[in-house]
Specification:
This protein is an all-alpha fold. It contains 16 helices and no strands. 64% of the residues lie in helices and 0% in strands. 20% of the residues are buried.
Length: 287
């Protein structure tokens, strides 16, 4: 079992050895993150104490052993915030609506640059660095597998609605296109690409159906899938034919060129060349 805010929890644990699980969960609640159980906290505590420097001074940026340890544990920018971390706090953590959109995009595996660009298009600008920081500390898909996310969303203690949980699951399973669509980002659709994706999906469904025991239902399903594949193939072929006809129209155009010969070097450089040769020198070299 894992938790998406693993690194934020570890940050809380280095604030003091006596920090309680209630204090950790209160901080998670404050930021709209689901609570963590005691067993997981015990594991995180062991990780942040086993090789901690003896004279640990996390707030002292000039203390090299402490800063090196923080960087090794990937906690440095939360202890010593940079511009990206501050933007993450000011824009994402303080704006629940934007935070939900960022979380869905991260779950959909949308790149940080793409997410930043698309969010700006719908009026909520935030940098890719801030999104990366949020992903690292609060919504880390790198430490969570699909089964971990399924359990996390199902047991979410932040009182998300069923519809909200469903949109998170759809973003995770549907990928970037679904994640962006679910937060209101409209993209120009490529009809041929859509048809090819549907064709691929139908074909693999056909292969799966073929493994079923022989029955009237199986024959009916295979027949329906075969017809669907044939219709899509016809549409794709028709689109390719239309494109070829358009290209043939362009083949009718020819580029006309003049009959004149190109000018000589003497005409281009009557008084010399870039090599500072005189007209007589040029004539001599040509002779």
């Amino acid at each position: 079992m894992a938790h998406p805010a693993e690194f934020f929890i570890k940050y809380l644990l280095i604030l003091g050895e006596d920090i309680s699980i209630d204090a950790v969960n209160s901080n998670l609640d404050l930021y709209g993150i689901s609570q963590v159980n005691g067993n997981l906290i015990d594991g995180y505590k062991a990780e942040v104490t086993k090789d901690q420097p003896k004279d640990f001074r996390p707030w002292d940026k000039s203390h090299r052993p402490s800063t090196s340890w923080l960087k090794k544990k990937r906690l440095f920018t939360l202890v010593h915030p940079d511009k990206g971390t501050e933007e993450m706090r000011d824009k994402i953590l303080s704006n629940p609506r934007l935070r939900e959109n960022v979380e869905r995009l991260i779950l959909g595996n949308v790149s940080f640059l793409e997410a930043s660009h698309r969010l700006a298009k719908i009026g909520t600008p935030v940098s890719d660095v801030a999104i990366a920081e949020y992903r690292h500390y609060f919504w880390n898909t790198g430490v969570m597998g699909i089964s971990d996310w399924a359990r996390y969303i199902e047991r979410d203690s932040t009182k998300r609605t069923a519809a909200s949980k469903s949109s998170y699951s759809l973003a995770m399973m549907g990928g970037p296109e679904v994640a962006m669509y679910r937060i209101g980002i409209q993209k120009q659709l490529d009809s041929k690409k859509i048809m090819l994706e549907v064709q691929s999906e139908l074909y693999h469904t056909f292969l799966e159906t073929r493994t079923l025991p022989l029955s009237a239902k199986k024959v009916e399903m295979l027949t329906g899938l075969a017809r669907g594949l044939a219709r899509i193939d016809e549409r794709v072929q028709a689109g390719d034919t239309a494109l070829q006809e358009t290209l043939k129209k362009f083949e009718k155009f020819k580029v006309l060129h003049g009959k004149k010969s190109p000018p000589s070097l003497l005409e281009l450089a009557p008084t010399g060349s870039v090599s500072d040769k005189s007209r007589d020198e040029i004539l001599t070299s040509r002779a």
